TrEMBL record:
Keywords: ATP-binding, Cytoplasm, Kinase, Nucleotide-binding, Nucleus, Pyrimidine biosynthesis, Transferase. GO terms for cellular component: cytoplasm; nucleus. One of its GO terms (molecular function) is phosphotransferase activity, phosphate group as acceptor. This is UMP-CMP kinase. Its cofactor is Mg(2+). Catalyzes the phosphorylation of pyrimidine nucleoside monophosphates at the expense of ATP. Plays an important role in de novo pyrimidine nucleotide biosynthesis. Has preference for UMP and CMP as phosphate acceptors. Consists of three domains, a large central CORE domain and two small peripheral domains, NMPbind and LID, which undergo movements during catalysis. The LID domain closes over the site of phosphoryl transfer upon ATP binding. Assembling and dissambling the active center during each catalytic cycle provides an effective means to prevent ATP hydrolysis. The keyword Kinase applies. It comes from Rhynchospora tenuis. GO terms for biological process: 'de novo' pyrimidine nucleobase biosynthetic process; nucleoside monophosphate metabolic process; pyrimidine nucleotide biosynthetic process. InterPro entries: Adenylat/UMP-CMP_kin (IPR000850), Adenylat_kinase_CS (IPR033690), P-loop_NTPase (IPR027417), UMP_CMP_kinase (IPR006266).
Amino acid sequence: MGSATEATKDISENLLGDKKVTVVFVLGGPGSGKGTQCANIVEHYGFTHLSAGDLLRAEIKSGSENGTMIQNMIKEGKIVPSEVTIKLLQTAILENGNDKFLIDGFPRNEENRAAFERVTGIVPEFVLFFDCYEEEMERRLLERNQGRVDDNIETIKKRFKVFVESSLPVVEHYESLGKVKRIDAAKPIPEVFEDIKVIFSSLDSKETA
Ligand SMILES: Nc1ncnc2c1ncn2[C@@H]1O[C@H](COP(=O)(O)OP(=O)(O)OP(=O)(O)O)[C@@H](O)[C@H]1O
Ligand SMILES: O=c1ccn([C@@H]2O[C@H](COP(=O)(O)O)[C@@H](O)[C@H]2O)c(=O)[nH]1
Ligand SMILES: [Mg+2]
């Protein structure tokens, strides 16, 4: 991989072309239920779900030259360099015929956020923030059973620390802009989705108004 400056230049030369998109950032701690609820939102509201973590895991599987670096970062609960994740998101958006996207688990820090806005020109419609306490998130992750290399207690503790130190400031940034819709994600899955429906249904009625 070249320097960050070279990589950013490479992305900005491609941008999103003329494609206009609606983006909702779905943020929350590890195990707060983002992926679970994104599947429900896709089914009911016609969004395409882009999980940054899933895109990075697919990149490892594809045998990419960045695969080993990404694998090591995920195992340590660290944040992969912005240019790598943004390139994957940009490609996924451009390759998809839809114009409404849920971006799940990104931006992970202030640098991710600023680089994404600068490079793609995308400003999120709003941020859907999953609020859940650590004990519950830890229990869910240890029971998830999907064979993820980061679902072990050592990595989970590191992910919580990164979330508090690096990711919550992103939520605070959008809060200062009045863009955060916070939901109580500690409730059972169907109840969380009831709260989400209120938010997305009002979005639908604004579009048809
Ligand atoms: N509200 C809930 N109550 C109980 N269990 C839940 C709830 N939401 C999700 N789960 C379960 O918790 C686990 C983690 O959920 P999910 O993968 O959706 O979280 P996530 O926020 O995407 O996590 P990560 O950030 O690690 O990708 C899954 O096994 C899921 O079935
Ligand atoms: O924007 C991102 C998203 C994810 N990562 C890395 O992947 C893991 C797992 O992410 P999930 O959202 O929980 O699937 C995360 O801990 C980071 O190591 C990233 O670097 N940048
Ligand atoms: Mg997830």
